[in-house]
Design a protein that fits this description.
The complex is a heterodimer of chains A (about 625) and B (about 625). In chain A, the strands form 2 sheets. Chain A has a 6-stranded mixed sheet, sandwiched between helices. A 4-stranded antiparallel sheet of chain A has the order 2-1-4-5, covered by helices on one side. Chain A has about 625 residues and is an alpha/beta fold. The two termini of chain A are about 75 Å apart. In chain A, helix 20 links the parallel strand 7 and strand 8. In chain A, helix 2 packs antiparallel against helix 5, helix 9 crosses helix 13 and helix 12 runs antiparallel to helix 13. Chain A is about 65% helix and about 10% strand. In chain B, strands 6-7-8-3-9-10 form a 6-stranded mixed sheet, with helices on both faces. The chains are: A alpha/beta (about 625), B alpha/beta (about 625).
């Protein structure tokens, strides 16, 4: 709890002044609001009835200030104007209160949203792997919203209830202590009642949410499985199922309505009880000529002013737990270390044009405490040359790429870039020199042009570079076929690209980067063989420009590499040039034989045909 | 968030036709509506009467002290409290009945409609988007409806009662106070318009922001490799700053609205104090109590107007939801039974006939000159012909996008041919009942869809009246029995949402058992492309053979074993059959089929070599 409060205090940093102003406006508006019944009281006692004897000192002062009884009797519009002015000022103060509180809350929400966004995009992959993205998304959206509502509304409402209740007490006691007690004695019960009642409703709220979840699941499952439903002609069955879950939801909701009915009716009664007590006491005192009509009127009006905030307070207090939990969940993310905490600070500059050299020496890696993914992998790639990596999925090919990009930190062994230990190269600098294309590349919901030029800092209009890269990646022609060409929007709000098109756009994107290392991680898998050959040909003509790593499944993709390694079970099982590898028996040659059998129509077909039966 | 591009442009117009349609849902709840109206009316009457009571009490106590008349008034005053609370209790319950009842009925109708609509409807609408029509849109409408009704009664009655009470107390004074009404209405109108606009903009920006968070999460790795963090944040900040702007605007508007209404109301009260006070002093028949009462009336006069304005804004806010729901309800299915078929279904038939009067058996299927397109001008299938007889398996092979899925979708009548026809035993299937055809289909998708619930329930989906023993027999026939028994709780194992707690291979086995239990006349299968571990693979193969036996079967085939045992193999490309024949015949041609076959052969050999799943 204390930690939560200190979190709130920290988050308010820079906006505390505004929040204090909101409190000030709150106090001032309370004072002004209470002035309204006081003026009415003064007018009733001092001008209309002239009840000098029982009138209160404040009322007398108000009358005197406004020019005295006789003066006012001539000019009854004057108190009317004052009343109007006071209401307007109270309104203005309420407005200021909201303005300051909203200002502070929105500013805090803004900085929280930005910080959360920045944090999640900088979380290390190892952390992201462990946290479901739905959960992270919820923390960024609904938790921040809950906290914002708390700052802009709930906290202020609680403050208002307290101020509205406490501010008039001295004056009320001063005017008439008996009436005061009669006006507030039920309030503690109202607050306690609503607090306890809403606490007890919590499981019902949870039950309703759960029922709603089940109903939503029925809908989603039905819609995703609509083909199964139709094919089995199970519409009636599905309707009954949905009637069940949506009926359960309606029922849970109805139960809550019934509880609300009881709550509001009871709390109405309690509030009426409060008014009735005050009216009863007032009538009794009035009949005994111990208070004035104005005083009586004053108390009735005052109760009207504070009873609503007090009544809401119980409910807000009961909901407070949600806001506090949201804050804890937000803090949890903000306190998770991200990639900005990098020991490496010394800048890195490649030694020469045309790529860098890469050396892996006895590198091992495991995800957390999980099974070993890489187990003593060693290889080296001279500057400007190409390494091909092949092996079954799950063998650790992609992990090599991930380590190189510092997406994960390697445990044992050494990785050296131009002779420098990778661990000492700042992440951002390393990634800037690597152009990466993954098997299922992610493209942003932007135009094709923006996507391709995304890593070309400051050259967003470099259309030549864009066209060149797209041409090398064999995607220029496809793009030109779209009605809006490079301005075509992709993603949720735009068009959907095929897997092969995405891969080629991603290749173009990485080429624009002019990288020292180009990594294709199974990046041509969805591209047809003909186009693939074309892309590889144009790559070879650029060979001297960067060091290249190609991870692939089709050997035709990497047979021209300067060096090829076969990775199996986290280890390098074979290494050499294509010609060397097919000369030796082993996994590579077997793969080669399987994959080339289709190019050689005669012999394998016989083998196949005999195998068929 | 899903489908943010569709319909998210709020029109916010008030369309009476849409709302009339929704109001028709209230028919079932006449009792609750009556109670709501009575509750609202009684409360309005009590609220209007309360100042009168206070006035009477003050006048009595002030003039005569504690009399029996005073105690009578007080008793009456107290009993109105109880009536008030009782009404509150009653109308909230009535509102609950209406809200949950209307919501329930509306959801049922939407759901029923979704079960009928043809697939072309689903092609363009994401599941998430449709789901929120049934969840949040229906919720918003049914949540708004009762309170609009209540406040309509309460507000207009309170307004009328207050006005009447004021007129009774003092006509001239009342007319003076009434002069503020047009100002109140104008102010409410102006503010509500502003608030509606900023509120919508805020919601729109908010969903863009959520999409952006989502992108940050989905694209985290790419962002890292491109070192895009700074610029991503910059783009996000534009959104979040815009969000703050709209939120500020909205709350500033609403924080101005209420004080403005209050001040206008106070102007009325001030006018009353000025003129009424004068009348009282000059002794023109206005007692102090009545003046106080009048002042109170003048003070609350603004409230119902403000409240009604609020409800009107609620209606406008819900109007987009209403339009979307009504348009869903009004959509008609493109594929439905022909009127003559409906007439045939209504008639009684001999026991050896199907329920639409046709033959219950399907002995042959014929595609005659079938053409199909999803989008005009982009043909997927052109003049396609095919003849399949009882017991035959047709394997469809070829590249993705060639039209294989379209052929099976047409067979299942998920879509109908644009040109040409599909004949079942010589009769166009459009002359048969849709339900009858689909009752005789067994379908297995590439990634089989299961429903949350137990394995047993999922298999029983194939035939709802199957006994547990029959379910087990079906599972045994497709080799699923052993794996099921190895699960915790066996057949009662909960598969989770969409079957997520089972592996793909296990889901396929369950789906096969479901299909076997179904015992369909036509079997349609889209074979999985991703293979599973070799042991499961072998089990699935056995299961598939069991399912295919003795029926008409269409298989979008990937596995060599399935392809080899097919009676007819169709190589589909560009919406046409490019090669047709048996495995041997086609292999001998050394053409397209040969290429596809050897390719797949390599893939499967590699999988064997590595002994692990491959793509």
């Amino acid at each position: 709890m204390r930690r939560t409060i200190s979190t709130i205090w920290t988050l308010l940093e820079g906006h505390r002044g505004r929040y204090a102003m909101a409190l000030l406006a709150l106090l001032a508006s309370a004072a002004v609001l209470y002035a309204v019944p006081m003026i009415s009281q003064a007018v009733i006692d001092g001008v209309l009835l002239i009840d000098e004897e029982r009138s209160t000192p404040i009322a007398k002062w108000i009358v005197a200030t406004l020019g005295g009884t006789d003066h006012l009797r001539e000019r009854l519009w004057l108190p009317g104007i004052v009343l109007l002015a006071v209401t307007a000022v109270a309104g203005l103060l309420t407005h200021l209160r909201t303005r300051f509180a909203t200002g502070a809350a929105e500013a805090v929400a803004l900085s929280l949203r930005d910080r959360m966004y920045d944090r999640i995009q900088r979380l290390p992959c190892a952390t992201l792997d462990l946290k479901p993205s739905g959960d992270l998304l919820q923390r960024c959206t609904s938790d921040v919203e809950t906290f914002r509502t708390f700052l802009a509304g709930q906290a202020i409402e609680i403050g208002r209830a307290v101020v509205m209740l406490i501010a008039p007490l001295p004056i009320m006691f001063w005017i008439d202590w008996r009436m005061t007690i009669a006006s507030i004695v039920v309030l503690p019960f109202i607050v306690t009642f609503s607090l306890l009642y809403f606490r007890r409703l919590r499981p019902l709220f949870a039950a309703k949410e759960e029922a709603e979840g089940k109903m939503t699941t029925t809908i989603t499952e039905n819609l995703t499985g609509i083909r199964v439903v139709r094919a089995f002609a199970r519409q009636e069955f599905e309707r009954e199922k949905f009637a069940g879950t949506s009926g359960a939801f309606a029922k849970a909701d109805l139960v809550l309505y019934a509880r609300f009915a009881t709550f509001w009716a009871t709390s109405d009664l309690l509030c009426f009880l409060q008014s009735a007590l005050a009216v009863g006491a007032g009538l009794w005192l009035l009949a005994g000529d111990r208070i004035s009509v104005g005083t009586f009127f004053f108390y009735i009006s005052v109760i009207g002013l504070f009873i609503w905030p007090v009544r809401m307070m119980g409910r807000i207090l009961a909901d407070l737990g949600k806001a506090l939990a949201a804050i804890d969940r937000i803090r949890d993310i903000l306190n998770t270390p991200d990639e900005r905490f990098d020991d490496a600070t010394e800048p890195f500059v490649p030694q020469a044009e045309g790529g860098v050299s890469i050396e892996f020496e006895n590198v091992s890696f495991a995800f957390g405490a999980g099974a070993t993914v890489l187990d003593g992998v060693s290889f080296s790639i001279p500057r400007g040359s190409t390494l091909g990596i092949v092996g079954p999925s799950g063998a650790g090919k992609s992990t090599i790429v991930h380590l190189l990009l510092r997406l994960y930190d390697y445990g044992q062994g050494s990785i050296r870039i131009d002779g420098r230990e990778l661990r000492t190269i700042p992440r951002a600098e390393m990634r800037r020199i690597v152009g990466t294309v993954m098997q299922q590349p992610f493209l942003y919901s932007k135009t094709l042009k923006e996507n391709i030029l995304i890593s070309a800092a400051g050259h967003l209009n470099d259309e030549d570079a864009m066209r060149n890269a797209a041409t090398v990646a064999s995607v220029h022609a496809s793009i030109e076929e779209f009605p809006q060409k490079y301005e075509t929007l992709i993603g949720e709000r735009g068009i959907t690209l095929s897997g092969g098109q995405r891969q080629r756009v991603a290749i173009a994107r990485s080429l624009v980067q002019a990288p020292s290392i180009l990594v294709l991680d199974d990046a041509l898998s969805a591209v047809d063989t003909h186009t693939e050959a074309e892309i590889l040909r144009s790559f070879r003509s650029r060979e001297s420009q960067h060091t290249t790593i190609i991870v692939a499944h089709r050997l035709s993709t990497l047979m021209h590499a300067d060096r090829i390694i076969v990775i199996e079970h986290g280890r390098v099982s074979q290494e050499g040039r294509h010609e060397e590898l097919i000369a030796r028996s082993g996994t590579y040659r077997t793969l080669w034989e399987i994959q080339t059998s289709l190019d050689d129509p005669d012999e394998p077909a016989e083998a196949l045909a005999t195998e068929v039966h | 968030m899903s489908g943010a591009h569709q319909d998210e442009d709020f029109k916010g117009r008030f369309d009476p036709r849409v709302w009339r349609r929704l109001v028709s849902y209230l028919g079932e709840h006449r009792g609750a509506v009556t109670r709501l109206a009575i509750g609202g009316a009684v409360i309005a009457a009590i609220e209007a009467a309360l100042p009168l009571f206070v006035a009477a009490m003050i006048d009595e106590a002030h003039a005569n002290g504690l009399t029996s008349r005073l105690s009578m008034i007080v008793t009456f005053y107290l009993s109105t409290f109880i009536a008030f609370a009782a009404c509150v209790w009653m109308f909230i319950r009535a509102a609950g009945e209406i809200s949950t009842g209307v919501g329930y009925r509306m959801r049922q109708d939407c759901f029923r409609k979704l079960q009928e609509l043809s697939f072309s409807f689903f092609d363009t609408r994401p599941v998430g988007w449709l789901t929120s029509r049934l969840t949040s849109d229906c919720g918003r409408i049914s949540g708004t409806l009762p309170w609009v009704i209540l406040d309509l009664f309460w507000g207009s009655l309170l307004l009328a009662a207050t006005a009447t009470a004021m007129l009774i107390i003092h006509v001239r004074l009342s007319l003076i106070v009434f002069s503020i009404v047009p100002v109140l209405i104008a102010a409410s109108w102006g503010f509500q318009r502003l608030m509606l606009h900023s509120g919508r903009q805020a919601r729109r920006t908010n969903s863009a922001m959520t999409a952006s968070y989502n992108e940050a999460l989905q694209g985290a790795r790419t962002t890292k490799t491109l070192v895009r963090e700074e610029r991503n944040l910059g783009e996000f900040q534009r959104l979040s700053t815009e969000m703050r702007g709209w939120m500020m605007k909205n709350s500033i508007q609403s924080s101005l609205y209420f004080p403005v209404i209050m001040t206008i109301g106070a102007a009325g009260a001030g006018l009353a104090l000025w003129k009424g006070g004068g009348d009282y002093l000059s002794g023109e028949g206005l007692t102090l109590g009545r003046l106080v009462a009048f002042l109170q009336f003048a003070g609350v006069f603004a409230q119902p107007i403000q409240e009604l304005a609020q409800r009107f804004a609620d209606i406008l806010n819900a109007s987009t939801a209403a339009e979307r729901v009504v348009s869903l309800l009004d959509t008609t299915s493109e594929i439905r039974d022909h009127p003559t078929v409906l007439a045939a279904m209504a008639a009684t038939h001999a026991p050896d006939r199907a329920f639409d009067g046709g033959s219950p058996r399907i002995r042959e299927v014929r595609f005659e000159g079938v053409s199909f397109w999803y989008k005009p001008g982009v043909p997927v299938l052109t003049d396609f012909n095919l003849h399949v007889r009882e017991g035959q398996t047709v394997a469809l092979v070829g590249a993705t996008g060639g039209g294989k899925s379209t052929i099976v979708s047409l067979m299942a009548r998920f879509y109908e041919p644009r040109e040409g026809s599909i004949l079942l035993d010589g009769i166009d299937y459009r002359e048969r009942s849709l339900h009858w055809l689909q009752s005789n289909l067994g379908v297995i998708q590439q990634v089989p869809h299961l429903f949350s619930g137990s394995i047993r329930e999922n298999i029983r989906y194939g035939r709802l009246d199957a006994s547990d023993a029959e379910i087990e027999t079906a599972a045994k026939r497709v080799n699923a029995h052993d794996f099921i028994l190895s699960m915790e709780k066996g057949y009662d194992f909960d598969v989770g949402e969409c079957g997520e707690r089972l592996s793909t291979g296990q889901r396929q086995l369950v789906a096969l058992a479901r299909a076997v239990l179904r015992n369909p006349q036509i079997f349609i299968m889209d074979e999985a492309t991703s293979s599973v571990d070799t042991a499961t693979e072998r089990l699935i193969q056995g299961g598939i053979e069991e399912v295919l036996r003795d029926r008409i079967a269409f298989v979008i085939a990937h596995r060599l074993s399935t392809i080899r045992r097919a009676d007819v193999i169709l190589v589909i490309d560009g919406g046409r059959i490019v090669e047709q024949g048996t495995h041997r015949e086609l292999l001998a041609k050394r053409s397209r089929y040969f290429e596809l076959y050897t390719n797949q052969y390599a893939v499967e050999r590699e999988a064997e070599l590595f002994g692990a799943p491959t793509a």
